[in-house]
Amino acid sequence: MIALLAYAAPAAKAAAPVGQHAASAPGLFGAFFTLLLVLGLIIGLGWLLKRMPGGTFRPAEGLKVVASINVGAKERVVVVDVNGQQLLLGITAGGISTLHQLPEPLPQTPAPALPNLKQLPNFAQLLAQKLRKEP
């Protein structure tokens, strides 16, 4: 039996040189084709999600969050406008509850505007003033 194994071992080594059965690295064409395939899959799935019912993320008509503030790690107080009527809601991890029904709507806050870059003070002058001041 040992003689048979000793005879078969050199024959197996000679029949299969090292690295013969290893997969070769993909060429540039294969990598480029795989990249195009993945990008096409992403675009195709995005198109499919748009076409599916319920796949769009449109805000509900007649429902708008007017104001919101965090009062804890998982708790918030929110003012919601529902067809012109404003409700103060408390939102927790356990659920949502109506805290108050506002008799009149909250005043509209102006939308934040970008600063006028031409009227900003010169940074070099401000820095020089701060460096000259002694604490």
Q: Could you provide a short overview of the structure?
A:
With 135 residues, this protein is an alpha+beta fold. It has helices at residues 2-15, 28-51, 123-132, and strands at 63-70, 76-82, 85-91, 96-101. The chain has 3 helices and 4 strands.
The major sheet is characterized as: 4 strands, antiparallel
Shape: extended
Query: Helix count, per DSSP?
Result: 3
Mean pLDDT: 81
Unreliable runs: none
**What percent of residues adopt helix (DSSP H or I)?**
25-40%
Q: Care to count the β-strands?
A: 4
Any idea what the radius of gyration is? Answer: 35 Å
Secondary-structure element series: HHEEEEH
Structural class: alpha+beta
| Oligomer type | single chain
Taken as a percent bin, the fraction of beta residues is 15-25%
Strand order of the largest sheet: 1-2-3-4
Give the distance, in angstroms, between the N- and C-terminal Cα atoms. 95 Å
Describe the protein.
The chain has 135 residues and is an alpha+beta fold. Helix content is 36%, strand content 21%. The chain has a four-stranded antiparallel beta sheet with strand order 1-2-3-4, with no helix packed on it.
